[in-house]
Amino acid sequence: MIAGLNIAKQSKQTIVGLAQKRFASDLIVSQKTGRTLIKTGSGGRSSSNGHVITVFGCTGFLGRYLINRLAREGAHVIVPYRDEDDMRHLKIMGDLGKIIPMEIHLRNKDSLEAAIRHSDTVYNLLGRDYETKNFSFADVHVEASGVLAELAQKHDIDRFIQMSAMNADIDSPSRFLSTKAEGENLVRSIIPSATIVRPSFMYGQEDRFLARLAMSRGLSVRINGGNTKVRPVNVSDVATAMHQMLDGNNTVGETFELVGDTEYTYKQLLDFIKETTNLDIGDVNVPKPIASLVAKAMNLLPWQTLGADEIERMMIDDKLTGAKTFEDLNIERSSLEVTGIQYLRRFRTNLYNDEPLKKGVVGKKKTFHTSYL
Ligand SMILES: NC(=O)c1ccc[n+]([C@@H]2O[C@H](COP(=O)([O-])OP(=O)(O)OC[C@H]3O[C@@H](n4cnc5c(N)ncnc54)[C@H](OP(=O)(O)O)[C@@H]3O)[C@@H](O)[C@H]2O)c1
Questions:
Q1: Which atom in ligand 1 lies closest to the alpha carbon of residue 209?
Q2: 317: CA distance to ligand 1 center in Å?
Q3: How far is the CA of 125 from the centre of ligand 1 (A)?
Q4: How far, in Å, is the centroid of ligand 1 from the Cα of 87?
Q5: 38 Cα–ligand 1 center, Å
Q6: Given the CA of residue 83, which atom of ligand 1 is nearest to it?
Q7: How far does the chain reach from its first CA to its final CA, in angstroms?
Q8: CA of 140 to the centre of ligand 1 (A)
Q9: Beta-carbon contacts of residue 105 (< 8 Å; ≥ 6 apart)
Q10: Which residues approach ligand 1 with their CB closer than 6 A?
Q11: What is the rounded CA–CA span in Å between residue 164 and residue 221?
Q12: From 61, 135, 136, 167, mutation site for ligand 1 pocket: most ligand atoms within 8 A of C-beta
């Protein structure tokens, strides 16, 4: 009788325990605004972590990695977009109703305000590698950043995280980098607690870095003799760092330089790509004035090509200035040499099929070509 009672009591406790986890809730009070975030659920994508986050520039390369991290723990993510097709893949990253697309135009302040006013955090990933006839570097990196920061200030946003770039410098010969620095200064003057993030060249599945070098089959133009030193960083590591900044109080008002674990020259990178893909990339050193002239002429084409400003950026070594890094966030970086194959495998030539089989051949029937690993 007593044993039966105990079992009943235990199972009741178990049920209550489960129910508590399922319906657990917690209150987090923002240090800056005193706003209360209500956390409910066990922490997965069907829970809510209380955050409402707007990610400008979410339709780009980094955006998908960041939104994936934010939405899978139950945040409401506002996804501002220009072209509906460019944000479709983001909608499935969160539970039903958690990803909220909103159409915006950088010159329509009301549309920007509508995307910001319910949020507690704003990520500004807006950026462009080249200028268009409608938007200059200054329009996107400076003016738009200023407008977003002002709106964020007006609506008392808790966290503003501004994406800049490694080597951002007001005096840089690259307009991309000088406007990124202007954008940083403007944002900081409006929101001193803003976090600035400066990544080096990011690589990943959809990158414009490794892919561009690998795609230049037959001929790759070497600028600066291939001697410029860069520290490419995995886009996943950058997204993880940016995700941490959401709640990491040690990131408030700080600048982070996010670079990969190893420094390479462009020449070393080309050699790595050649070795990994077996592509016969012949590289020719082109003096900068000629490369810039050709790039300028190519920029008249109606599709995107290597811009003259990108040539300028390819001349600048990645230099750390002593800002905070991945170490301050306790994030272990992935290595290009280990992960690079994931992104370069698709560029491998069919010459791999003609190579002698290496160790790993299983019997006669089933061949296992290790060079496809
Ligand atoms: N990728 C790198 O290696 C690298 C290196 C250093 C710094 N960064 C910076 O990091 C950020 C994210 O990089 P990313 O590679 O993800 O950039 P990305 O792929 O070029 O995406 C840029 C985003 O900005 C938006 N955008 C650009 N111009 C706009 C305009 N006039 N109006 C509205 N939206 C506009 C784009 O929207 P649409 O899709 O509508 O065009 C897109 O969502 C950028 O600020 C970039 O400058 C990148």
A1: 3
A2: 22
A3: 6
A4: 13
A5: 32
A6: 40
A7: 63
A8: 9
A9: 82, 111
A10: 57-63, 82-83, 86, 106, 125-128, 135, 140, 163, 165, 199, 201-202, 209
A11: 27
A12: 61
pLDDT in tens, the chain (373 residues): 444 545 455 555 544 454 555 566 777 777 667 777 888 888 889 998 899 999 999 999 999 999 999 999 999 999 999 999 999 999 999 999 999 999 999 999 999 999 999 999 999 999 999 898 899 999 999 999 999 999 999 999 999 999 999 999 999 999 999 999 999 999 999 999 999 999 999 999 999 888 888 877 656 678 888 899 999 999 999 999 999 999 888 999 999 999 999 999 999 998 898 888 887 777 778 888 898 898 888 888 877 778 889 999 999 999 999 999 999 999 999 999 999 999 998 888 777 667 676 554 443 433 333 333 3
Tokens 């791999």 label which residue?
A: 352
